[in-house]
Amino acid sequence: MLIAQVTDCHIRDRDTSFGRLVDTTETLRRVVDHLLGLDSAPDVVLATGDLTDDGTPAQYATLRDILAPLDDRLVPLPGNHDEEPAFRLAFADLLPDDLPDGHCSYVVDDHPIRLVGLDTTLPGRHDGRFDTEREAWLDGVLAAEPDRPTAIFTHFPPFETGLRFMDLAGLLDADRLRATIERHPQVRLLTCGHLHRPIQTAIGAALATTCPSTGNQLGLDLDSDRAGAVDEPPAYQLHRWDGERFATHTGTVRDPAAVRTVDLSSYAAEVRRRHAAGEPFTKA
Ligand SMILES: [Fe+2]
Ligand SMILES: [Fe+2]
């Protein structure tokens, strides 16, 4: 199963310093085009929050227009820049009718991997919360299917990253979420947004990762009081499940005219030939 992830699209329609750095509408269009052109089409596309900058209906309309070619493969979740009820109204056709009170968390059960969307956003806040009500919801969902490999997707990563200003205004109760995941070893992937960078660690039996933004990234400046956004390329992740484990790839989307390549197809053909013939990969 192939799970694509886009995050922190920050569709905006007003002038901001971030907006002068990157046109997030244009970069999201490029990322969607890129995903549609992949030889291996993703089975689902997770969209893990901050999908708009201000959560206005107009921004959601632009977002849905750009994401339309992904059709019902899209699996959306809000981030701290999204707003209720505009988010639920914008994605009413893709969200279940029986969402829990107070958070937009839900399960997608149609695939070899069970997908659990966990909403930890709070109204009017830029930090997030995994309170005892959300813990009870997640514990119940995971206890119902202990033998099915499961991926949790959420906006805030429940681990310290070293990007200090993001860690300080991150997920309250991160230790509670980590402990919940550790109680359920069928959770093999926890994938998040919010950090605008690719960052990996381990929690229990799960690879825990943050996906970079389809717009601007944050500068890699650890344990510092400095903070900045950078125009590193728009990006996405592909989480490939082979039946035993996930391998997570981070892809960037640059202007095709600026990408230089070397054709390795004849080398790849020789590798396939030797593999099929059982020949060793000796040098020269
Ligand atoms: Fe964001
Ligand atoms: Fe965020």
Outline the structure in words.
The chain is an alpha/beta fold. The protein has a single domain, classed as Metallo-dependent phosphatases (Purple Acid Phosphatase, chain A, domain 2, 4-Layer Sandwich), CATH 3.60.21. Helix content is 26%, strand content 23%. The strands form four sheets. A six-stranded mixed beta sheet has the order 4-5-7-9-11-10. The protein has a five-stranded mixed beta sheet with strand order 3-2-1-14-15, with no helix packed on it. Strands 6-8 form a two-stranded parallel sheet. Strand 4 and strand 5 (114-118) form a beta hairpin. Helix 2 runs parallel beside helix 3. The protein is globular and about 60 Å long.
Strand order of the largest sheet: 4-5-7-9-11-10
Proportion of strand residues: 15-25%
CATH architecture: 4-Layer Sandwich
User: Which superfamily, in CATH terms, is the homologous superfamily?
Assistant: Metallo-dependent phosphatases
Spell out the helices and strands N to C: EHHEHEHEEEHEHEHEEEEEEEH
Question: How far is it from the N-terminal to the C-terminal residue, by CA?
Answer: 36 Å
Bound small molecules, by name, code or SMILES, are:
fe (ii) ion
Poorly predicted regions are none
From the 3D structure, determine the CATH topology.
Answer: Purple Acid Phosphatase, chain A, domain 2
Task: Specify the helix fraction band.
Answer: 25-40%
